[in-house]
Design goal:
This protein is mainly α. About 75% of the residues lie in helices and about 0% in strands.
């Protein structure tokens, strides 16, 4: 899936590819940093492009998820999707509920599937966290995940090939 995205973006400057990958819910910075390194981008530049790209969707999700889901939830197909999304997110939000901003940062920072800025922003919205605390928790988590992924990529523990399946 991610290799299809990369191929589709081959005519776009590589820095934009990294930011688009980091902003996408499928890849986030967990894939963007290793891909950036494989494209010959320096670690520092890969880190900051990925952090910025991963942070881009957070504010719109925090502002618009609830009103959009309320409006679209009136339609059966969207209601099923939002019910599934919210139920899945609630199951993973115990840490966030207990520790609030710090819990959100930890949740977002863990570089595993179904964690990250997208899931963190959805959870913060569902838990009705104050915007500033949700934003701070997400940004701290994004920075933490970026550090973890950068270190693991530098050590050769993860590479862009791990995301192509």
């Amino acid at each position: 899936m991610i290799d299809n995205i990369i191929c589709g973006l081959k005519d776009i400057p590589k820095e934009y590819v990294v930011m688009i990958l980091a902003a996408s819910p499928l890849a986030e910075l967990r894939a963007a940093i290793p891909v950036a390194l494989s494209l010959g981008i320096s670690l520092e530049k890969a880190f900051w492009l990925s952090v910025l790209g991963n942070a881009i969707p957070v504010i719109p999700i925090l502002f618009f998820l609830e009103p959009v889901s309320n409006r679209l939830g009136k339609f059966k197909i969207f209601k099923r999707f939002f019910d599934w999304l919210f139920e899945r997110t609630k199951k993973k939000s115990d840490t966030i509920q207990k520790w609030e901003t710090l819990g959100l940062a930890i949740f977002v920072a863990i570089p595993l599937p179904m964690t990250g800025a997208w899931s963190g922003a959805v959870a913060a919205s569902l838990l009705k966290m104050k915007f500033r605390y949700a934003l701070i928790g997400n940004l701290l988590g994004i920075l933490g995940a970026g550090i973890i992924v950068a270190v693991l990529s530098t050590l050769g523990i993860i590479s862009w090939k791990a995301f192509i399946q």
